[in-house]
Input
Amino acid sequence: MSLLRALIGAVRSARAAPRETAGLVPDDDVLLDAPDERLAPALVAAALADPEPAAKLLATVREAGEWEDRDRYVTRLAAFAYHRPDWLLHWLAVAPHDPDALLVSAQLSVRRAWESPARAERLRELDPVIAVVTGSAPHDPVPWRLALDHARGAHAGHAVFESLWEQAVRRSPHHYGSHVAALKYLSAQWYGSHRAAFDFAEQAADDAAPDSLVRALPVRAAHDRIRALPRPDRSPGASRLDRAADRALSLSAAFPPGDPWPAEVRNLLAYVLVERERWDEALDEFRRIGPHATSFPWGAPNGAPRGAVREDPLLRFLAVRERVRAESAGSGGLWRPGSGRAGRGGPGGH
Output
């Protein structure tokens, strides 16, 4: 029996009888990748083929220098356009030189190229597109984050990647998205090693502001190591996994429970805590997550708990959360991660 089937079976059995909720948000109230109060109206309008709210939103965050929100919004809008492109095509038709429309379009093009069997070749064909978006918003790090993702998939050499990285951090020294892009490049799955990834993540976390999401970058390196190595991990480097979790716990505790801002970091931290069998801390983290489940790290194939079959990430989140509740209450015993390796994912690493 796969891990996921065991977990889901435990959830169904538990649902059949009354139980304590342990302070967790009810299953029916949990949402996957829920947009915040600014993005939601833009997505509703886009569904009606109206790009104006999205255009205003991206212009507002660009002018305010809200780079983390801008990066999230660009990514989410491009994901929406992947299935519903009419609003984006209309936007480009009426404003062909709008830097925000061009950036969303470029993000979408990079995603599609990543999905091609001829990934590197398709990405290299997008070189002119990347050049346009990096040149159209001189103070914006988000196009440079996209350039870093593009370069990784196009098999750019170290010198090229370093030059792009310098441009990104010159615009925003602690931009989380750019740091994640660099961490992926340095990972063992790509052009580095687990040690190189941890070294980079820990140094970046040390240098970041106290409330910066970059403080949690080591827990992302921990996730990659966990996905790549068989359990149990008793190697000398395993202590870095727990230190990474401790760093992320400190950051998470600085934000209110249920805050959507650190939601992905909290979901990632919960995953690592579960893999490290730190049940009580994992339960506390699920409480802090509240209703905000995220596709990463629960989405298949790279984010799924090892041995799991391809399933809905929300279902997986709920199954793992219930397992943690049971383990913390002393009634568990089915969490037995299997073995496997994470493959190379797309530009988002999911």
Summary: The first strand starts at residue 31 and ends at 32.
